[in-house]
Design goal:
The protein is built from nine helices and 14 strands. It is elongated, with a radius of gyration of 23 Å. Strand 5, helix 5 (121-129) and strand 6 (134-140) form a beta-alpha-beta unit. Helix 5 packs across helix 6 (153-170). The strands form two sheets. It has an eight-stranded parallel beta barrel, surrounded by six helices. The chain is an alpha/beta fold and 348 residues long. The protein has helices at 20-28, 39-47, 65-71, 80-97, 121-129, 153-170, 185-190, 204-208, 317-325; strands spanning 8-12, 33-36, 53-56, 74-77, 101-106, 134-140, 176-180, 199-202, 228-240, 261-268, 280-282, 287-291, 296-299, 310-315. 26% of the residues lie in helices and 22% in strands. The longest helix has 18 residues, at 80-97. The structure holds pyridoxal-5'-phosphate. Pyridoxal-5'-phosphate is lined by residues 12, 14, 37, 57, 142, 181-183, 201-205, 212.
Length: 348
């Protein structure tokens, strides 16, 4: 879908903590540029001999700039002071390797997270080009993550225009216009000008087969590549409803439980420390009632669950990220059980 339009994919591995097994699958299937928000994950992939071009997609912390230059080829940035530190470390390193650290300058276009304001473009570019250890290779923007701002022709057009203006003002032809993430899927499918951008940064749509804006399934992709499995540690018939004189729960909230009378309640050995309980969907007919740090509470309905049963869940992005981050969740990799979903081959 993207390649014929001249748009390359930066595979974003942060949801799987840069798991080398997963990164290798991406690279073997043609995604040779990988991005992660944590330099530790990039280091893990590099040390596991994943051969890719690596981009740090969160603006570096000043205190980690030395390791960013060491492990990442490129980073997304929005602060001249940080870029200056990157340049300093790259220069010192360059005495051995002779290459500059590449910078993609992020622009704020409505999501209210990272990026320079468009009015600061000229001054910031001027500052970057004066630094000997770094090379400005592109502009980028991130939408749909914090404020939920949409990816539109207008936003992508502004980014492309800014790139042209850098070329005209500084004689600098930028290679990369890094426009969208998985929330830009709809825009890409409906726009007549996908070529406004030439790079898209994708995590969720690759791993979970969904676009981010509406959570819609992307035709031809699997949504169950990841399965969360948890074990029943208690199963009893119990009343379920608001406690008398209820105070705050373990996380400081008023529980406000719904009165269900007597239910078959299942407790699973997994909790908020390991998963976002709002981001999981059981694959059997049970209902998630809530969770504390270490327990997940289910209404087991009339299923045949018992102590020791395993319950499988589909995960949304938040749940995938947290489960992958929990040292208490074992990660196992199994070969694909089914053939590729060729029955819905995408047509451009
Ligand atoms: C997380 C992230 C992405 C990837 O987002 P998905 O919705 O998973 O595709 C892209 N760019 C930046 C800057 C990010 O932080």
């Amino acid at each position: 879908m993207y390649e014929p339009q001249g748009v390359s994919i930066l595979g974003v591995t942060k949801a799987v903590l840069g798991a080398p097994r997963v990164a290798r699958v991406l690279v073997e299937n043609g995604i040779t540029a990988l991005g992660d928000s944590r330099i530790e994950n990039i280091r893990t992939m590099r040390e596991s001999r994943i051969r890719a071009d690596f981009t740090l997609i969160r603006s570096p912390m000043p205190s980690e700039t030395q390791s960013v230059v060491e492990w990442a080829d490129t980073s997304l940035n929005s602060e001249l002071d940080v870029i200056s530190l990157l340049s300093h470390h790259a220069e010192r390193r360059g005495k051995r390797r002779g290459d500059r650290h590449k910078i993609i300058l992020m622009v704020e276009l409505g999501d209210m997270r990272e990026g320079i304001m468009p009015s600061e473009l000229g001054a910031t570019v001027e500052g970057i080009v004066a630094l000997p250890g770094v090379e400005l290779v592109g502009l980028g923007t991130n939408l749909g993550c914090f404020a939920g701002a949409p990816t539109t022709d207008c936003a992508m057009g502004r980014l492309a225009e800014m790139s042209t203006s850098v070329r005209d003002t500084f004689g600098l032809a930028l290679e990369v216009v890094s426009g969208a993430n998985s929330s830009g899927f709809e825009w890409f499918g409906s726009t007549r000008s996908p070529q406004l951008i030439n790079q898209i940064r994708l995590g969720e749509s690759i791993f979970l087969g969904r676009e981010t804006r509406q959570g819609n399934k992307i035709p031809g992709l699997f949504t169950d590549a990841f399965t969360l499995v948890a074990e029943v540690i208690e199963l009893k018939r119990k009343p379920h409803g608001p406690a008398k004189n209820a105070g705050r729960d373990a996380f400081g909230r008023i529980a406000g439980l719904e009165d269900r009378g007597t239910i078959r309640q299942a407790l699973l050995g997994i909790g908020k420390q390991d998963v976002d309980p709002g981001g999981i969907t059981p694959r059997i007919h049970v209902e998630v009632l809530g969770a504390t740090s270490d327990h997940l509470v289910l209404d087991a309905g009339d299923t045949r669950l018992d102590v020791g049963s395993e319950v499988e869940f589909d995960v949304a992005y938040s749940a995938l990220l947290r489960s992958m981050s929990s040292p208490y969740v074992d990660k196992t990799y199994t070969p694909a059980a089914r053939e590729d979903p060729g029955r819905h081959v995408l047509t451009p």
